[in-house]
Amino acid sequence: VTIRQWVIDKLPNDQVSIENALIMSRSRRWPLMIDPQLQANIWIRKSNPEGLKVLRLTQPNYARDLEYAISGGKPVLLENLGESLDPLLDPLLQKAKFKAGNIVMIRLGDSTIEFNEDFRFYMTTKLPNPHYTPETCVQVTLLNFMATPDGLQDQMLGILVAREEAEIEKKRQNLIVESAQSKAQLKEIEDRILELLSNAQGNILDDEELINTLATSKVASQRIEERVAEQEKTQATVQETRETYVPVAVRSSALFFVVADLCNVEPMYQYSLDWFYSVYEMAIATAEKFERNIAKRLQALQGNFLKLIFEKTCDSLFEKDKLMFSLLLCFKSMEVDQDINQEEKAMLLLACGGVGSANPKPQADWLTDVSWDRVCELDKLGRGPWQNFAGNFKQNVNAWKSVFDADKPSETSWPGGLKESMSPLQRALVLLAVRPDCTVQGLQEIIAAKLGREYLEPPSFNLEKSFDDSNSVTPLIFVLSSGADPMAEIVRLAHKMGMNERQQSVSLGQGQGKKAERAIMEGREQGLWVILQNCHLASSWMGRLEVFVEDLHPDKVHDQFRLWLTAMPSPDFPVSVLQNGLKMTNEPPKGLKSNLLRAYLSIEKDWFDEAGVSKGEACQQAFRKMLFGLCFFHASIQERCTYGPLGWNIPYQFSEPDRQICMMQLRMFLEENDTIPYMALKYTASEANYGGRVTDTHDRRTINNLITDFYCSDILKDDYRFSPSGAYYAPSHASYETYVEYIRSLPINQMPEAFGLHANANLVAAINEAMRILRTANSLMPKTGGGEGGRSKDTILAEATEIFLGELKKPFDTEYVEAKYPVDYNESMNTVLNQELLRFNKLIVRVRSTLVDVGKAVKGLVVMSPELEEVANGILENMMPGVWKKMSYPSLKPIVSYVGDLAARLKFLQDWIDKGAPVTFWLSGFFFTQSFLTGQLQNYARKTKMEIDTLVWNYKVLPAADQKIQKPETGCLVYGIFMDGARWDDVDGCIAESFPKVLFCEMPHLHLTPCESSKDPTDKKTVYPSPVYKTSERKGTLSTTGHSTNFVMTVLLPMAKTHNEKYWVKRGVACLTQLDD
Length: 1077
What we know:
alpha/beta; 24 strands; 5-stranded parallel β-sheet; globular; single chain
């Protein structure tokens, strides 16, 4: 009876919510409810209609109101709690009551008040995954009221039936109430009879009251039972009608969890259940209707809701996350239709990561180790097309080369007619293994096959349409990315709506809170547009903003009032404002053409026409040519970011003001000087205006080289071209309109050659994008056991920990090694070895202990701590856990490859211990590479009695065919270096262009010879100073030793006579000591 009443009071009708409510009603501690969708909040409000006091910690007088409620015995709902509670509440949470005479008292802050036993206290938080201290957890009953699939399905079915079959739903609602009343009456009668029987004295047959009560209750209960039977018949009819609409409710409720999980990708991706319901109701209202064809109507409802939720959500997503969102919608739809193999899905999201394979790789230069490992992982699936997949692949390895070489591998034929027999998901797995740069196309095919092509192209953003969806109490929130400024669009819309004179703009920051509050108060009274810019810069004021937004009620606010908010993604932005607001993303245009067009459309035509006129036509011509060069330079340095570390080591956020100040300086320098001061222009652009942002030494070298292509005398010649293809150049002296027309004629998608990069850079960008999408999608997947014959989470963890522990040896015996290789003045390598072993021992102990404990936690022998959970998640997601990273050398490898790499390093050191210092040193194998290099220099300096500060390295690359490698008399031989962005030409002995689709090239052995810097024979004009990094990320931070955590050294490599240093700098060429996989 009580549960039925709770359901009537809007408690979600699912087992989890009902159990939570039962725990809450029986618990001795006050409840703290995790309630991101406000389900518990609504239920508490409905079930306490009279006297409920709703409070928040942000209210100035909440303590006073709480005291009145405690002494008056009124229920209190304390909502919107954060992760820390006010210490004032401690006595209340502990129920620290005491008696003063006959009165029960409690102390709250400074005041002692009477405690009324009728008082009830409820707490809710909107945080989806809060972390409370153990002290808080033991004082409260922590309950999770997050939406569950069953509860949400029931609610969405109710909404749909109410719209489609209003009479049926009304009948059902009445039935619930009547049924509850009937059951309550029956229980009341039974209780009355039992009470009379227990109190009866003497012979019960003489008790007239009892006999009369039994007689009347029999009649009443018969009547009630007849009514209940009738209700149950009606209930069966109603249920039958509702069952028809269940498929729509199941699919729709499943999609909510896809949308709700997006907040784990960006903190600004917050969506409320109310918003979800409003989209659902809009879909029901706008879906195509079919007379007497319920099946078609259901199909239309499902399709329309999916389309609407996709469009509405995409408005608030950054471009980079839209394809990932489509993929998640697709996977969820396939799961609902039971149309997906969970093992294949998991394999795709893990990028075919596994615990490795002992199967030897076939002899094929084009097939990388990573690709072969992925093929072997697919073979382990063992069903359908995967049966003996690796064996068949090995037999047809030459036929697969044609797939590898094809421009569009998804359109060419595959060996054995494999492509035609596979599902889109299976084809995507093969592309991931053989051609990872085409993985995105594979993902697009999965989405297109299930949902349709329209889910690959989200509708373009329309501010007017979003404005039409808004109202006076819904804030409009622009989520910004670097370089984006929506003010121009808002001003344009204000002109169109006639609000250009009725708007107030406040740029938030220190001390601007009061000004913003005044603007909101005036705006809601007078019907103004209030624009609060850069909300992320005023995190301390966000609590006040939340209060103002919640105080917006339609009857108190002018109809024309609109609150516009702009903010970069920030975890401090109030969740309730994001959930109830209308979110839009604003990003600068992508691509060289869009960037150039944006630059020219922002230039005032009069300013363009007048520039240089005072100095004559030559000055005007030079200005227009060099202005185009500057805009091209601005566009190219921004677009280089899309190519990852090949473009820039650190992705800098160059902005429009950087370009504008350079434009004004260009005009000033040209008009004030008789000759063009190229050096001054280069310095102001690459060192001051843009260069001020550039913090990495090698990025500074890159920007200084790039500017020389545009601020140079050659740009004034009409035949000068910016790239080898000749497509990009500064048009000859012409009008403003001619320049704009030329920009509009440029290709939409630029090739890497426009930036001086190799064509392979496109492959790098495509692979990085695919891996980012898969990694993000995988992080949102539930960490539960596999279905459809998939192995459970515990099985995977137990197997992986056992394999990893088998690969990793136990810590080194440092005392034995110190005795065998003592500190020696003439042999610094002994010290280097001992220091390396100490570093690796710390890492081995951490890695092995966590793996052993994860294995025990799976068996229930130890508690799964947050640290162990991180390691377990790392194993399941094939990612290196943070607890290992803290103790580890830099590495971007996934966990499987990382363990293999660590085992190889340990073997390298063990061989050194057993057999003495090696002839050639594996440069990748050192924890702290710089100590090895310094040790070698120290050996030479002590041997030759020179100062170590005067020594530099000479570099000689040995021929790859040289098999007889002997220990050199001076210096050392090293191997394990990879070239990124170019390759080593062993025939000509110089750097050369990469082969197509070959991203990295392993260098032959390198002979490092110390020599005095004053006697260095190297001709600096014939060598390229290539930086050597530990990982492909390239960027690093300064460690306590004064060394970068990533940069190792600069290697001087010979160049061909046709190339110069600038050519390879623009290519982004560098050397790495390890690859990512």
